[in-house]
Amino acid sequence: MLVKASLSIAPQLAWDALPLGIPESTDDDPLHGTRVLAQRVADSDPAALHAVRQAATEVGEVVAVLVHMFNPRSIILAGPLSELRDDLVSAVRAAVYQRALPLATRKLTITANSSRAAPGSTVGSPSPRGTSSGRRASHGC
User: Fold this and answer.
1) How does pLDDT run across 27-69, given as a tens digit for each residue?
2) Which class would CATH give 10-140?
3) Count of alpha carbons within 13 Å of 138, Cβ hemisphere only?
């Protein structure tokens, strides 16, 4: 069985980025806003950090529901914001572990894809024969 789940936090970050004065995109660079946001997070801008952590917490709440529905062994965060992996992964993990049952998260790993995947991209792997514990869900960021 191949399990794929995809969700994008781009709309949430776009909404949160408005007070930051970050344009969502330009004609020349559709990821301009993402790059500016990533730079502000790297520079420890408190407003940018808050926007990313808030959006990641909300994503974590949705991922907790996915964990209950699909019981994956791995959640892989991917997308143009995966370069913010420390901030994203920690907030998503915190929300998942707070909301999901301990039995569902006992062997769960939550990581970020190190490559720059397209928004909404998915990663999945077939379950080992006869088991359902090898499922993976990907979450585009």
Assistant:
1) 888 888 888 888 898 899 999 888 888 989 999 999 999 999 9
2) alpha beta
3) 18
Task: Give residue limits of the domains in the chain.
Answer: 10-140
Residue 9 neighbours by CB under 8 Å, 6+ apart:
55, 56, 58, 59, 79, 81, 141
Mode of pairing for the β-strands spanning 74-78 and 136-140: parallel
Collapsing DSSP to helix, strand or coil, 31 comes out as: coil
Q: Is 25 helix (H, G, I), strand (E, B) or coil?
A: coil
How many whole angstroms separate alpha carbon 89 and alpha carbon 86? Answer: 5
Task: Identify the H or E element spanning 78.
Answer: strand 74-78
Specify the DSSP element, H or E, that contains 110.
strand 109-112
For residue 2, what are the β-bridge partners? none
Token pair listed for 63: 């991922």
- The more confidently predicted of residues 109 and 133 is 109
Single-letter residue type at 94: A
The CB density around residue 43, as the number of other CB atoms within 10 Å, is 9
